[in-house]
Each structure stands twice: as C-alpha cells, then as structure tokens.
Amino acid sequence: MTRHVLVLGGARSGKTTFAERLTMRSGHRPAYLATAQALDAEMRDRVESHRRSRAAHFATIEEPIALSKALIAAANHHDVIMVDCLTLWITNLLVAGDNVAHAVDELLATLMALQDVKIVLVSNEVGLGIVPDNAMSRTFRDLAGAAHQRLAELCDDVYFIVAGLPMTLKGEAPLVQPPPKSDA
C-alpha cells in the first residue's frame, strides 16, 4: 500500500521544490501533473519555464479540470505522480462553473482506489490571511479549506512548508534534503 501525501504552504514558500524532491525519491517513473492554464503572456512564460526545469526528471501531464481521470490514466505508466497544484485546479473548476465539492469527492475516491501509485498533492494554504473582500474569493477560500481538510484526513503524510522548511503535520518526517545553502 502506497502513502499519499499532501504538501501545503503559502505562495513562494518552497512547497513545489519540496514536493519535487519528495516525488523524485519516491519512485522510478515519476509524473508531474500540472493544473495551470496559460491564459496570458506572463503565465505562458511561467508554464514554459516550469516545463523546461522539470523536463529531465518528470513526464509532464497537463490537465486543468479532469484531475481524477488524468490520475487514473497516469497510474498505468507511473509509480509516483505529483499534482501541482490543487488551488489552481479549484480555481479552474470555479471559473468553468463546475461543482467543486463533487470534484473533490471524486478526487478522494480516486486516491482511495489508487493504492499502487504514490500521489503527492501540492496546494496553497490560503486560510492564513485576512477575510477576502469579495464573494468569489471567500467562496474559493472556503472550498480550498474544505478540500484541504478532507485530503489531510485521507493522506498518510501531510507537510506544511514555511521558508522552504517542512513541518510534519501528520505521518512520517520527510526523507528529503533541504536545498543547498548559497554563498550569496
């Protein structure tokens, strides 16, 4: 039985770097399932930069909405799959007018069914700031928080990343090395 993982953190906290290291140590055939959509020039540049940086290490799968189906298909070819990120996925679902709670139910069922492949889920913790000033943002925050709670309950290991350092919230302490210190 494989241990599924939830990696949470704020923007630019180091959560993706941590999750990538964890994923690379967890299997021989890793996949990177990206949920981002390149809807403007700046995002296209970011997506392309991320593709280049991980090309040598991961098979890349891009799926902004149908996450469960993409995980099931990827599980046929990979022993570990990193999903980056759930908050973008939730945003994509909201914008598309899809039922986020139903999609999260489907994701949980998929994770329970996929016991022969490790899934590393990355998401932004958005509940630590001020209450958003508009209904859409509050809805997003509420949906993300509810999804995180349900996923944290199901996942074997849950980490919260602060300043590049992992805090173990649930499960085993991570077996990944911190990033090398720079001389700058």
From TrEMBL:
GTP binds at A34, T35, A36, R51, R52, S53, R54, E62, D84. It is an enzyme of class 2 (transferase). It catalyses: adenosylcob(III)inamide phosphate + GTP + H(+) = adenosylcob(III)inamide-GDP + diphosphate; adenosylcob(III)inamide + ATP = adenosylcob(III)inamide phosphate + ADP + H(+); adenosylcob(III)inamide + GTP = adenosylcob(III)inamide phosphate + GDP + H(+). Catalyzes ATP-dependent phosphorylation of adenosylcobinamide and addition of GMP to adenosylcobinamide phosphate. It comes from the Bacteria. Pathway: Cofactor biosynthesis; adenosylcobalamin biosynthesis; adenosylcobalamin from cob(II)yrinate a,c-diamide: step 5/7; Cofactor biosynthesis; adenosylcobalamin biosynthesis; adenosylcobalamin from cob(II)yrinate a,c-diamide: step 6/7. InterPro entries: CobU/CobP, P-loop_NTPase. This is Bifunctional adenosylcobalamin biosynthesis protein. Keywords: ATP-binding, Cobalamin biosynthesis, GTP-binding, Kinase, Nucleotide-binding, Nucleotidyltransferase, Transferase. GO terms for molecular function: adenosylcobinamide kinase activity; ATP binding; cobinamide phosphate guanylyltransferase activity; GTP binding. Belongs to the CobU/CobP family. SUPFAM superfamilies: P-loop containing nucleoside triphosphate hydrolases. The active site is at H50 (gmp-histidine intermediate). One of its GO terms (biological process) is cobalamin biosynthetic process. Its EC number is 2.7.1.156, 2.7.7.62.
